[in-house]
């Protein structure tokens, strides 16, 4: 008798809201996407821990945006890690990459501060890049100092400072899994927390109780227990409304056409300079590892085409 192997469970993001209260939340298991990222890169263990937390956090934040476009989360570092980038679009398709200093020496127990904020010059940025820009429209970007010793704390501080939103995050990453929990206090306006009739005192009490419950969550639980089990363990005394789950995936948006447009933006003189030295132009995507190569004929066709040049930023650049 043959046995058909079971397909791995898809990544899942589960939204919920405290009924007649002032708190919304999300659990995420984004382990399959995380393993897809790791299959394309070989990072030291401390870098993987920080980048995996960012992957889970980017999906959690993106799911609350009423926005047709991509959220790009970046940490610019001044230590052995120079850059961490995670991009998540409106369909919860993600990609991620890290750039290390050429001479990077990373201890096995290095935390976020040692990796990215050794001299206190690290920066955290979130960019909202609309998919349907109008002429002249620029992406929105918020940049703050790297305030916190882990990804969860950095994002909590960013959300409070930049968005005036009380947010709590619990994140956990291993080589096989990346998972998280987000709780957010709904904005309070004149006797209402969004659409929920509630006194300010009750709203604060509900929020504090939710945070206390979330803080009982252990790292091993978050990494191993199913989402429905975690929700039952933490909030079994609360009345919670659960929404249909959504399923994040790995996706890299690089294409040969986009790379060609990027070369056209560099200009013929610069491209011809590379061709004179190497006989080809090679471009490597830092996110998925795809390599694109253009010989002299390919490049000549690029610059004789009448097709418009899109405004693109190379995959290897710091901003996307």
From TrEMBL:
List the CDD domains hit by this protein, alphabetically. Answer: Hsp33
In which domain of life is the source organism classified? Bacteria
Q: Which GO terms describe its cellular component?
A: cytoplasm
Per UniProt, the keywords (alphabetical) are:
Chaperone, Cytoplasm, Disulfide bond, Redox-active center, Zinc
Q: Which GO terms describe its molecular function?
A: protein folding chaperone; unfolded protein binding
GO:BP terms for this protein?
protein refolding
Protein known as:
Hsp33 family molecular chaperone HslO
Whose protein is this, by species?
A: Rugamonas brunnea
Give the source lineage, highest ranks first. Bacteria, Pseudomonadati, Pseudomonadota, Betaproteobacteria, Burkholderiales
